Amino acid sequence: MAECANRGQGEPSSGAKRLRKSPAKKSSRNSQFAKKTIALIYDFDGTLSPRPMQEYAFLPQVGIDATAFWEESNRVAKEQKADPLITYMHLLYKKAKEANVRIDREDLVAQGRDVVLFEGVLEWFDAIEDYVKIRAESHGISLRHYLVSSGLTEIVEGTPIFDRFHNVFASEYWFDAYDLPYPKRVITDTGKTQYLFRINKGIEDLGETINEHMEEDARPIPFSNMIYYGDGDTDVPSMAVTRKNGGHAIAVYPPGRPRKKCVDLFNSGRIDFFAPADYRRGSDLFHRTCLLIDRILASIRVEEEMWKVARSVKG
Ligand SMILES: [Mg+2]
Q1: What is the structure's pLDDT at 128?
Q2: What is the pTM of this model?
Q3: The predicted structure's pLDDT at residue 17
Q4: Does 192 fall in a domain?
Q5: Measured in angstroms, how far is the CA atom of residue 60 from the centroid of ligand 1?
Q6: What separation in Å is there between the alpha carbon of 98 and the centre of ligand 1?
Q7: What is the distance in A from the centroid of ligand 1 to the CA of 46?
Q8: Distance from the CA of 152 to the center of ligand 1, in angstroms?
Q9: How many domains, in total, are found in the chain?
Q10: How many angstroms separate the alpha carbon of residue 149 from the centre of ligand 1?
Q11: Chain segment 300-313, per-residue pLDDT in tens
Q12: How far is the CA of 29 from the centre of ligand 1 (A)?
């Protein structure tokens, strides 16, 4: 838990988050077993927050009904055979321009303050870190939270949980490139999996290529140390990649609402667990997360012991 305890010491400011280089490419040569970082990776819309993040401030500011906006966006994407994410990013600003509303980067960040989070999300990060601290019997275990979202980086930046993430991978605009803001990065459903591999390989600087081969041994965060949280179909590629590589996945649904989507994901083997999106200590989600963390901690101890034995017989 050294990393959690040291939060904020010598870390880059939040704006530099996505530029953070990750440390451990040479783990196999270290004198310590290095694969002791646990990564909890979250989708945002529907997972940490009940509604798509654009619905809390952007659409109301521009005076558009959310249902009508998404219907139009999906219709245009279908008609044009365009990527739905690029289409929504384009349409947002087209609508703003039509309404004569100018929304720049700072405005988007400010909109983050209006985003509603599910109950317990604010306390969740400390609660899980406390749990890991209590249960970690192996020295040097650290916990990281990551966000991988098709939503907008700028809005996430304005939410009170932005600083809880080791890194935030989300779609983003270029504000000075063209008349209308232009997509700088678009994170589609399948594109999300790229960021899982970036976390796995420790290549979090988006300026660096992810495609070079890296031996399993050299990858700082094995998939088996990951739990992916999502809420539906858009998370299926990430859940599948995580679980097929030995990791874990949990789906959430809004408390008190139908859970059919989660049941389908569970029955089709996409997830280990599902639970209402209630992040308070003692909730089903908290309990099931702790069970998976117990399993991850146990397997880290086993792997560490095997690593020591392997070193001892090398001579
Ligand atoms: Mg979602």
Answers
A1: 98
A2: 0.90
A3: 53
A4: yes
A5: 20
A6: 28
A7: 4
A8: 13
A9: 1
A10: 8
A11: 999 999 999 999 99
A12: 39
Question: 229 C-alpha vs ligand 1 centroid, how far in Å?
Answer: 9
Residue 193 within a domain: yes
- What spacing in Å lies between the alpha carbon of 301 and ligand 1's midpoint? 33
Which amino acid appears at position 63 of this protein? G
Distance 79 CA to ligand 1 centre (A): 24
CATH number of the domain that residue 36 is part of: 3.40.50.1000
Q: C-alpha angle 298/299/301, rounded to 5°?
A: 65
Q: Is residue 214 in some structural domain?
A: yes
CA of 180 to the centre of ligand 1 (A): 26
- β-bridge mates for residue 171, sequence order: 152
Q: Which of 23-58 are b and which e, b meaning 16 or more Cβ less than 10 Å from the residue's Cβ? A: ebeebeeeeebbbbbbbbbbbbbbbbbbebbbbbbb
Domain range enclosing 277: 2-50+118-314
Q: Does residue 301 form part of some domain?
A: yes
- Contact criterion met (CB below 8 Å) for 148 and 48: no
Mean pLDDT along residues 255-267: 96
Q: In the prediction, which pLDDT does 314 show?
A: 84
Task: Assign 31 a pLDDT band (cuts: 50, 70, 90).
Answer: confident
